[in-house]
TrEMBL record, chain A:
Superkingdom of origin: Eukaryota
UniProt entry tagged with the keyword Transport: yes
Residue ranges occupied by any EIPR1-like beta-propeller domain in the UniProt entry: 149-263
Source species of the chain: Deinandra increscens subsp. villosa
Protein name: Peroxin-7
GO molecular function: peroxisome matrix targeting signal-2 binding
From TrEMBL, chain B:
GO MF annotation, one: signaling receptor binding
Function: Component of the PEX13-PEX14 docking complex, a translocon channel that specifically mediates the import of peroxisomal cargo proteins bound to PEX5 receptor. The PEX13-PEX14 docking complex forms a large import pore which can be opened to a diameter of about 9 nm. Mechanistically, PEX5 receptor along with cargo proteins associates with the PEX14 subunit of the PEX13-PEX14 docking complex in the cytosol, leading to the insertion of the receptor into the organelle membrane with the concomitant translocation of the cargo into the peroxisome matrix.
Protein name: Peroxisomal membrane protein PEX14
Pfam families: KPWE_dom, PEX14-like_2nd, Pex14_N
Subunit-level organization: Interacts with PEX13; forming the PEX13-PEX14 docking complex. Interacts with PEX5 (via WxxxF/Y motifs).
Location in or out of the cell: Peroxisome membrane
Gene Ontology CC entries for this record: peroxisomal importomer complex; peroxisomal membrane
Domain Peroxisomal membrane protein PEX14 central plants stretches: 147-266
Length: 316, 537
């Protein structure tokens, strides 16, 4: 499996929902502390090496990227200067970015595109807020301000067009409905900062949260006082968690312990795979929606790996 | 603490207006069915009285009253209270607490401007009644005295002037007789004692007059000096007072930052280092990202204090995740105030902010989970769960039908669609037994695997034994009917038998060539079939 070397430290990787061989990679210079950023768009090739088809430089680090679900060439980037930038691959690089939406007062940490409505996306920021945007508007549609600390992640529900969840450093995860003025549920999910959350694609009431406490907890919102499952196994904080688009109970996660783990929370011995290919913090992971079992991960070791589950990511 | 939505969006009531339209009918129906009035994403628990009472006790604690409202709310949320319970607790706590808290927050944030003085004065007596924290009280004291300073100064001026005048008069009355008597003594010493008083008086009168004049002048100069000194001392006092205030402000700030750092240190000991590290990185990041953009928050050390308010957890802290060496170098560089040399000036603004977005070239693809929309949402968990412990092996057949896999034009499938050998083994054997073998030769392993059978669960019975303990919380939620379960278990036993046959027949050769070959065409057919059904859905 080929690897792609980025000049800066990797922060996020996302598969395109349109092209099965295409990925976007968000990177930041100097580990994202202070420096520029770069957004890469790469294509896998049957012959082997990964080719870069576009790269966009930003003044500040890029912390997250999301593909549009409506336009095959649109990308949304979460930039560390608080802005959200839109890039269009169909336009020449000199015309990019097409939009720069600067409303957050702190770093924008994540963006997620609505896969149901396909016309809106949310951005979450260290300024404790989440903002709802549409592509055609220059300003945000709504701002959700309730968290008491940085919101590290926000994810749309895969079935309900108006529902999304957020994970915050105030140790709570919240569920929101854009039609309601405030959050509809507060999950005190962990005793420590919650870094990531994701919905089960096959059961829209199941949500997973990952935290600095090294665990991933799976919750059922209908009975949210007790977690459905607690997945332990990572050695350090779990930076990102993602439900498989193909398997109802499969979760993939990456952690500061430099590993990417795959879990099945319905099984007693939940850990079903562990990949130890990164040599620094593994910070971004994604599963392809178009190709079952295809995984991608990136980390502070400036490498992007793409591999099939069950194979060795570092094998040539 | 739901603040109203961003006023700049201008649409507080209808959050997602025109953009709402494109929704397929199925989705609408499903949404209507699932949400209606009883959305599962809403808390339906009744208010728990014991939790509310605990919260009221917490909120009534004097130390808690000294903290900003945001922290109290966040604490209660972390403890698992719902919004309604928290609101109820806030309602029950005595009324003056919010106003005092806001006053105190005003003091804390505004740093003692005279504006909240009007609020402070009526509060001052109530403050004295309640056990207020020392700092705000002292701040109040300084503030009240500050407010009085000007009228106080005027009063002082008046008092001093009067006292000066009075002193002058007194001096005149006191000094002059003294001088007179002293002059008399002197004169007496000069003149012989037999000189009658009358003669003494005459020269003494003139001398007295001179002396009196001298005395008056001296007194006047004394008075002038005294009043000057008083003026000077008053201005000095004013200055000193101002300096004192500023010094106290500085000390307050220092104490604040000290307490923050103490808290931080405490937090570092008790809390997982990951957390503190994450926060540390972010705090350090915030400190290293100074004013490169308009930042509404001036005090980020309060942020660091906030981040460490989670109480010490039962989780034992582990070692700090080892950071790369260059990371530490960069952090130290930034803390020293240096800027890493490799940063470029980049203009990343859109060259044309009104650039129209290009039209999409591809239609959105259906998601793997959307194909099963009709089956409803909550029933998925049992149907799609796969109890097989497939460590390193592939998942058994039958979750969602595979999404569209384009078969490539060239003969060989791209590497990212190929599974590894071990995984294909199981499936190919299963498929082999269920489908007649073809004769095509293919040099490579089969492409993206496709579940051969629709039945969603394999070996659920075997799995049931494994996941027995886990299942109990689910059973209430599961909407399995008996018939469904029976139907599934029937299919399941078939699968079981097939799988046991597989294991009996033994494994295939490592290259998987023979096994892979025959079923490829069949999977293609199945693919197409499924593709067909897919698009109908």
């Amino acid at each position: 499996m080929p690897a792609f070397k980025t000049p800066f430290n990797g922060y996020a990787v996302k598969f395109s929902p349109f092209y099965e061989q295409r990925l976007a990679v968000a990177t930041s210079q100097n580990f994202g502390i202070l420096g520029n950023g770069r957004l890469h768009v790469i294509d896998l090739s049957p012959a082997g090496p990964i080719a870069e088809i576009a790269a966009f430089d930003t003044a500040d680090g890029v912390y997250d990227v999301s593909w549009s679900e409506s336009h095959d060439s649109l990308l949304i980037a979460a930039v560390a200067d608080g802005s959200v930038k839109l890039y269009d691959l169909s336009l020449p690089p000199t015309s990019n970015p097409v939009r720069s939406l600067s409303e957050h007062t702190r770093e924008t940490h994540s963006v997620d595109y609505n896969a149901v409505r396909r016309d809106s996306f949310i951005s979450s920021s260290w300024d404790d807020t989440i903002k709802l945007w549409t592509i055609d508007r220059p300003t945000s549609v709504r701002t959700f301000k309730e968290h008491a600390y940085c919101v590290y992640s926000a994810a749309w529900n895969p079935r309900h067009a108006d529902v999304f969840a957020s994970a915050s450093g105030d140790c709570t995860a919240r569920i929101w409905d854009v039609r309601e003025p405030g959050s509809t549920m507060i999950l005190p999910a962990h005793e420590f900062e919650i870094l990531s959350c994701d919905w089960n694609k096959y059961d829209d009431a199941i949500i997973a949260t990952s935290s600095v406490d090294k665990s991933i907890k799976v919750w059922d919102v209908r009975n949210y006082r007790i977690p459905v499952a607690v997945l332990n196994g990572h050695g350090y904080a779990v930076r990102k968690v993602k439900f498989s688009p193909h398997r109802a109970s499969v979760i993939v996660s990456c952690s500061y312990d430099m590993t990417v783990c795959m879990w099945d929370y319905m099984v007693e011995d939940s850990l079903i795979g562990r990949y130890d290919h990164h040599s620094e913090f593994a910070v971004g992971v994604d599963m392809s929606v178009l190709v079952e079992g295809l995984l991608a991960s990136t980390g502070w070791d400036e490498l992007v790996y793409v591999w099939q589950h069950g194979t060795d990511p570092k094998a040539p | 603490m739901a603040t109203p939505p961003n006023p700049t969006d201008g649409n507080p009531q209808s959050p997602v207006p025109e953009a709402v339209k494109p929704m397929t009918n199925e989705q609408q129906d499903a949404d209507k069915g699932a949400i209606k009035d009883s959305s599962i994403f809403v808390n339906t628990e009744p208010i728990r009285e014991d939790q509310v009472q605990n919260a009221v006790k917490f909120l009534s604690h004097p130390k808690v009253k000294g903290s900003p409202v945001m922290y109290r709310r966040s604490f209660l949320e972390r403890k698992g209270l719902t919004k309604e319970e928290i609101d109820e607790a806030f309602r029950r706590v005595p009324d003056d607490s919010p106003s005092i808290s806001t006053t105190q927050t005003a003091i804390a944030t505004q740093g003692g401007q005279s504006q909240p003085a009007s609020n402070i004065q009526p509060q001052a007596p109530t403050q004295s009644l309640q056990p207020a924290p020392a700092v705000p009280a002292s701040k109040l004291g300084t503030l009240t005295s500050r407010q009085f300073h000007w009228s106080h100064a005027l009063l002082a001026v008046g008092v001093l002037a009067i006292s000066g005048a009075g002193t002058a008069v007194v001096f005149k009355n006191a000094v002059v007789p003294r001088l007179k008597s002293w002059i008399r003594k002197v004169v007496h010493e000069d003149v012989e004692e037999d000189v009658p008083d009358k003669t003494d008086r005459k020269p003494t009168l003139a001398e007295e007059a001179a002396a009196a004049a001298k005395a008056a002048a001296a007194a006047a100069s004394d008075v002038a000096r005294a009043s000057q000194e008083m003026l000077v001392s008053r201005t000095e006092e004013k200055k000193y007072f101002g300096e004192l205030l500023s010094v106290m402000d500085v000390q307050l700030q220092e104490m604040k930052s000290m307490s923050n750092s103490i808290k931080k240190l405490e937090g570092m000991e008790e809390v997982t280092f990951c957390q503190s590290n994450m926060q540390g990185r972010e705090v350090q990041v915030t400190s290293s990202r100074p004013s490169s953009y308009t930042n509404g928050r001036a005090d980020y050390d309060s942020r660091s204090a906030r981040s460490l308010s989670p109480p010490p957890a039962s989780v034992e802290p582990s070692a700090n995740p080892p950071h790369p060496k260059s990371y530490m170098e960069i952090m130290s560089m930034i803390q020293r105030g240096e800027r890493p040399p490799n940063i470029r000036e980049i203009n990343d603004l859109p060259p044309n902010p009104d650039q129209p977005v290009s039209n999409p070239r591809l239609a959105p693809k259906p998601k793997p989970w959307e194909g099963l929309q009709s089956q409803g949402s909550s029933t998925f968990t049992p149907e799609n769960s796969n109890g097989v412990n497939y460590y390193g092996q592939d998942y058994g057949p039958g979750t969602a039908p595979a999404s569209v896999y384009q078969s490539n034009g060239d003969g060989s499938a791209p590497w990212w669609q190929q599974k590894n050998v071990k995984i294909t083994e199981m499936d190919t054997e299963e498929n082999k037994t269920s489908h007649p073998s073809g004769t095509n030769e293919r040099p490579v392993q089969r492409p993206s695997w496709v579940p051969p059978q629709p039945p969603p669960v394999a070996m659920a019975e075997a799995a049931a034994a494994i996941r027995q303990p886990k299942k109990s919380p689910f059973e209430k939620e599961q909407q399995l009917t008996d018939e469904q379960f029976l139907a599934r278990s029937a299919e399941v036993t078939d699968e079981l038998q097939r799988v046991t046959k597989v294991s009996e027949s033994g494994g295939v050769a490592a290259d998987g060539g023979g096994a892979g070959i025959p079923m490829v065409t069949n999977t293609d057919e199945i693919q197409r079939e499924e593709e067909g059904s897919y698009y109908e859905a």
